[in-house]
């Protein structure tokens, strides 16, 4: 674990950068004269290049070396964070956020791939647990630290100072990268540059449409972007299916997606992060607009949730040893129960004020944080274990692409429910209605986890991996 600390800091930094962008959004309008749609464009600029670059970056790491890609990505994150903080105007900021998203995309798949290919099954288990904790902390720390920096009465604080803090994890991790023990690249396939473009352009369109749609009232062009993205991804898949049997280089080999655990795991990833994306967006809107909290107070309100997430993530080997293959099912059931209780508390809190609701949330939030960590950790292990070592970067890219697209999807679909219903129901009850939809996605996650347990979790055969036998999650953590 001591040797992989740069990987964990890098994973923290990637989610921190994404979260800081969301926190700074309300300040961009007054400072840069941007309307709601233009502010959404700043957020989408990062999200689209981050999502679109993950799979190509993972494959480049498989081919040319994950340590090399990780170092380049961290250096680029530091530089582009400084560019974004110094942006003199709106369109300069959009351009800097595009580059910042591409740099973060270089980092994230390498972190999971390095953990996946670390020596020894026990080391992999500990690495996944630490990755779960560090990436979860990054998400919450971005909201808390970003709000604190924006509240400082210092020169160059505000949103610019918050954005600049995204460079700190990269600068801290970069010196330790060269000491990482990383398996040499063993993929000899030439990069499928055409496939990278066929995947990146539709992903750009899809995530841009989903990100900009809610803020702009879903004009025709956002729907057209979503439709183009879906059709383009289908065309990309057909292209890869034709190329692989012919022996030509591919970006995502269809044969690599044959393991049922990988396919089911990616669908579970979409459900989990669509719900989480919606929850984080609804929480910010509800606490800041509905309850009138400051960004700092809103972020600090997540302290109990974040603490429980981190503690559960660090203890994930013990948790999975206790519950075995049923870990994700138990976690999903607890999460659904917690969402129901929070929804009821919000519904009957109508008119009682912020203090009562925040107090209730500190208790319920501990259950929600522990339950989500207990879904997230085993899910990462399931997806990453379903592919050979030689394409671990691809698996990392697939997982994080599904994660980022689902976050945008959750905000665009479920996340808008409270704002739509608030004028007629009030914010407390509108927030409760949004939680009801997330209960449905959690139940679907539970059903897929049950199906996954029934089908068994298997490692994909790998000529460089001596362990090709069937291993359950509980066996992995003994």
From TrEMBL:
Membrane topology value: Multi-pass membrane protein
Renumbered residue ranges of the record's region Disordered: 455-478
Key words, A-Z: Membrane, Transmembrane, Transmembrane helix
Highest rank taxon of the organism: Bacteria
Chief location bin: membrane
GO CC annotations on file: plasma membrane
Listed Polar residues bias regions: 465-478
InterPro entries, sorted: MFS (IPR011701), MFS_dom (IPR020846), MFS_trans_sf (IPR036259)
TM segment ranges: 39-57, 69-92, 98-115, 127-150, 218-239, 260-279, 291-314, 326-348, 354-371, 391-418, 430-449
SUPFAM superfamilies recorded: MFS general substrate transporter
Annotated ranges, domain Major facilitator superfamily (MFS) profile: 3-453
GO-annotated molecular function: transmembrane transporter activity
Record protein name field: MFS transporter
């Amino acid at each position: 674990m001591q040797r992989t600390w740069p990987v964990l800091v890098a994973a923290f930094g990637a989610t921190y950068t994404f979260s800081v962008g969301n926190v700074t959004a309300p300040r961009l309008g007054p400072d840069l004269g941007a309307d709601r749609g233009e502010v959404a464009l700043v957020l989408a600029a990062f999200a689209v290049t981050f999502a679109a670059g993950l799979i190509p970056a993972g494959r480049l790491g498989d081919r040319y070396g994950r340590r090399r890609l990780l170092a380049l990505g961290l250096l680029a994150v530091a530089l582009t964070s400084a560019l974004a903080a110094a942006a003199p105007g709106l369109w300069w900021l959009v351009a800097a956020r595009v580059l910042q998203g591409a740099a973060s995309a270089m980092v994230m798949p390498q972190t999971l791939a390095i953990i996946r290919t670390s020596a020894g099954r026990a080391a992999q288990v500990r690495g996944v647990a630490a990755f779960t904790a560090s990436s979860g902390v990054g998400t919450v720390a971005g909201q808390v630290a970003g709000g604190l920096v924006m509240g400082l009465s210092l020169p160059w604080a505000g949103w610019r100072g918050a954005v600049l803090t995204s460079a700190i994890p990269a600068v801290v991790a970069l010196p330790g990268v060269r000491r990482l023990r990383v398996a040499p690249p063993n993929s000899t396939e030439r990069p499928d540059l055409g496939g990278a473009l066929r995947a990146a352009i539709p992903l750009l369109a899809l995530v841009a449409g989903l990100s900009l749609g809610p803020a702009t009232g879903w004009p025709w062009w956002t729907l057209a972007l979503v439709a183009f993205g879906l059709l383009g991804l289908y065309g990309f898949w057909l292209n890869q299916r034709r190329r692989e049997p012919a022996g030509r280089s591919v970006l995502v080999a269809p044969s690599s997606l044959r393991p049922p655990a990988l396919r089911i795991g990616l669908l579970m990833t979409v459900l989990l992060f669509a719900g989480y994306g919606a929850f984080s967006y609804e929480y910010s809107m509800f606490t800041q607009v509905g309850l009138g909290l400051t960004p700092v107070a809103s972020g600090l309100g997540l302290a109990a949730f974040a603490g429980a997430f981190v503690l559960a993530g660090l203890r994930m080997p013990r948790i999975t040893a206790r519950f075995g293959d049923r870990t994700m099912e138990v976690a999903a059931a607890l999460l659904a129960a917690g969402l129901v209780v929070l929804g009821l508390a919000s519904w009957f809190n109508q008119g009682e004020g912020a203090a009562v609701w925040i107090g209730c949330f500190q208790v319920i939030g501990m259950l929600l944080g522990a339950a989500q960590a207990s879904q997230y950790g085993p899910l990462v292990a399931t997806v990453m274990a379903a592919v050979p070592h030689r394409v671990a970067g691809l698996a990392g890219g697939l997982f994080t692409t599904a994660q980022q697209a689902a976050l945008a999807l959750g905000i665009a679909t479920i996340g808008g429910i409270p704002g739509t219903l608030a004028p007629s129901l009030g914010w407390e009850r509108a927030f409760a209605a949004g939680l009801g939809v997330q209960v449905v996605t959690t139940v679907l996650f539970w059903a897929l986890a049950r199906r996954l347990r029934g089908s068994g979790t298997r490692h994909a055969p790998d000529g460089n991996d001596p362990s090709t036998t069937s291993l359950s999650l509980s066996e992995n953590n003994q």
